[in-house]
Specification:
- The protein has 16 helices and 14 strands.
- A hairpin with a 2-residue loop joins strand 10 and strand 11.
- The longest helix has 25 residues.
- It has an 8-stranded mixed beta sheet with strand order 5-4-3-2-1-6-8-7, with helices on both faces. A 6-stranded mixed beta sheet has the order 11-10-9-12-14-13, with helices on both faces.
- The chain folds into 2 domains: 151 residues, ATPase, nucleotide binding domain (Nucleotidyltransferase, domain 5, 2-Layer Sandwich); 182 residues, Nucleotidyltransferase, domain 5.
- Helix 2 packs across helix 4, helix 11 packs across helix 12 and helix 12 packs across helix 14.
- With 409 residues, it is α/β, with parallel strands linked by helices.
- The structure holds adenosine-5'-diphosphate.
């Protein structure tokens, strides 16, 4: 089945055309026929990028004023590059939807009720859900007969029990405003857990894992027998690890203090927490780990400090999730930093021998941007690098939803 996977943001559409079916999923032989993006939609300088492996990326700059035009151009580009003979070859569309609230614990075919529930969740993710829905409206219009499936960032974490998802606020805030931990990056955590089970030939029930998604946004998850039982992001993606520009865990009273001292508005404070904190905030220099590693190597103390805080926070969550799980079989690193930075993995795991974690430095150094084990033979936990592939999981979920097959967590 040829599936169009869409990830629609405020001014961009990221897309992939993936061919999958039950045998391909089993053999891990699904095919990414093309991938691309339309960026800066709404301007006369929008860029359209399409890559059809093994050919190089083709990029054009043109006027693309709305989503409708963006999708039309993306499909036309797929045809021009021979990835698709005709739009009618697309048999299903899988949409990344950021927030499913407490409505969705799995991927679903979008119907009127589902659409309404996604709209109800928009208040919880005002910067994402409305754009995700816009993608749906455009594809529904262009391909009215084709089933469309929503795959939620939050769904995997709906299994997190109340002891881990409730905040210590008056309970009425949970009842009235649904204030609780939702967690994000669920598709990524779920995908790498799936790969771990596959690599070691284990059933989901046979392994407990800690997964660390370290990209611009960062989160960790405790996975017990295939189910998320705790995760570091919370009501919003602000909570938990230190991130590129977000601060992660913080004493909320510190925010009131800053607001009153500097006479900041709510909007100012939100911008400070989202855009000027984290690695960028501490280093005063960059949110990009590569820049910080280079600066630290040159002796830049602020960059070194930012890296130290980043790694210490990961280590603390490994400890916390070891306690939450009781027994851990594997630790997985993924996303930009997790996949590509051996020194960060070393620092995050330093001193955790008591928890059964021992890194083999030669394996660690050799595992960059690819799947592989980085723990020593003596390590009780298998520490793995597993590149994430959220689009592939969206395509597989879409296929299974359309065929009425259960979507394994
Ligand atoms: P996003 O969350 O936007 O999808 P990515 O998963 O692409 O982000 O991760 C981006 C982060 O990965 C950046 O901080 C970048 O510096 C980091 N990164 C990418 N390659 C490397 C590398 N070789 N060494 C260290 N960090 C890297």
């Amino acid at each position: 089945m040829k599936i169009l996977v869409l990830n629609c943001g405020s001014s961009s559409i990221k897309f992939q055309l993936i061919e999958t079916d039950i045998d391909m999923i089993e053999a891990d032989s699904d095919r990414t026929l093309a991938r691309g993006s339309v960026e800066r939609i709404g301007t006369d300088e929008a860029t359209l990028n399409v890559t059809v492996p093994p050919h190089p990326t083709r990029s054009t700059t043109e006027e693309i004023l709305d989503y409708q035009a963006g999708l039309t151009r993306a499909v036309a580009a797929l045809k021009e590059s021979n990835a698709l003979a005709d739009i009618s070859q697309i048999q299903a569309v899988g949409h990344r939807v950021v927030h499913g609230g407490e409505y969705f614990a799995a991927s679903v075919i979008i119907d009127d009720k589902v659409e309404q529930d996604i709209r109800n969740c928009a208040e919880l993710a005002p910067l994402h859900n409305p754009h995700n829905l816009r993608g749906y409206y455009v594809t529904r219009k262009a391909m009215p007969q084709v089933p469309q499936v929503a795959v939620f960032d939050t769904a995997f974490h709906q299994s997190v029990p109340p002891r881990a998802h409730l905040y210590g606020l008056p309970y009425s805030y949970y009842r009235r405003y649904h204030i609780r931990r939702y967690g994000f990056h669920g598709t990524s955590h779920r995908y790498v857990a799936f790969r771990f089970h596959k690599i070691f030939g284990k059933a989901r029930e046979e392994a407990n894992l800690i997964t660390a998604h370290l990209g611009n946004g960062c989160s960790m998850t405790a996975i017990q027998k295939g189910q998320s039982i705790d995760t570091s992001m919370g009501f919003t993606p602000q909570e938990g690890l230190l991130m590129g520009t977000r601060c992660g865990d913080i004493d909320p009273a510190a925010l009131f203090y800053i607001m009153s001292k500097d006479e900041l508005t709510l909007h100012d404070m939100s911008t400070l927490l989202n855009k000027f904190s984290g690695l960028y905030g501490i280093s005063g220099e960059s949110n990009d780990m590569r820049d910080l590693m280079a600066a630290s190597a040159r002796g830049d103390e602020q960059a070194r400090l930012a890296i130290e805080v980043f790694c210490y926070r990961i280590k603390k969550y490994i400890g916390a999730y070891t306690a939450a799980l009781g027994h851990v079989d594997g630790l997985v690193f993924t996303a930009g930093i997790g996949e590509n930075s051996p020194p960060i993995r070393t620092l995050a795991c330093q001193g955790l021998e008591e928890l059964g974690i021992q890194i083999d430095e030669a394996r660690n150094a050799a595992t960059v941007g690819k799947e592989g084990e980085i723990s020593s033979d003596a390590s009780r936990l298998r520490v793995m690098v597993i590149p994430t592939n959220e689009e592939l999981l969206i395509a597989r979920d879409t296929f299974r939803a359309v065929r009425g097959l259960p979507n394994p967590h």
